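Task card 7
Instruction: Convert sequence to structure tokens.
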Amino acid sequence: MDILLLIISSNGLPHYEKNKAVWRMYMNSYPRIRCYFLESGTDETRIYPCLERDTLYLWGEESFPNILKKTLDAMAYFLSERHYDFIVRTNLSSVWCFDALETYLRSLPSTGIYSGPRGPYYHLRELYFWFYFVGGMGIIMSHDVCRLLLENRALAEDFRNMDDIDIGYAMHRLGVSIRPIHYCSVGSLTDFEEKKSAIRWDEHIFYRAKKMDGDREEEPIYMERMVHLIYPGLYKTTVAEVGSM
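Output:
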């Protein structure tokens, strides 16, 4: 089973480089899971799309509207290179347990999969429930569903909301239902201490490390601590070393 994991990335906030350093602690540790950062660029010395080590650069400015384009273009690029059984789209502030991910994916059918944390979307003017979508921190698709999305990408692009909602709208229109999963949100160092047991015992496939208010600079600190719990004994990197990478 081959898995493609795409990480929405940019240099938009100071702590993002540290988040990437934490990702690099474990992202290449499973040979059947290939992980790449996705970033936009306008450097005319590059030919886009441009794959440099673990980062795929796609033409354009970094912006919220461009996240959908970046996602779809990256899916098209990598699926043209080789076959992947499952495609995962996530972000810099998430930490994944690859053992739990592989176990979950092996339990699924090989086709028809659109999975992740489920949320409702309401019509903005009429305020009635419209459809469910998978949150952008953890979108999981089987190969065929990803192909279906790419073949019908105009459905997502024309909806013009946030990227995960746009994808959810396309899946809704295409009749692809969601297999919901739960994730664990960690919003502070104190929150991390309270949830250490769940993290240590792989109770979730992934963990979202996002401080919803105030300074987000400490996010990579508890991301790094989560990595040490999920992958014990593999790494001796300290928070200070992550900050200097």
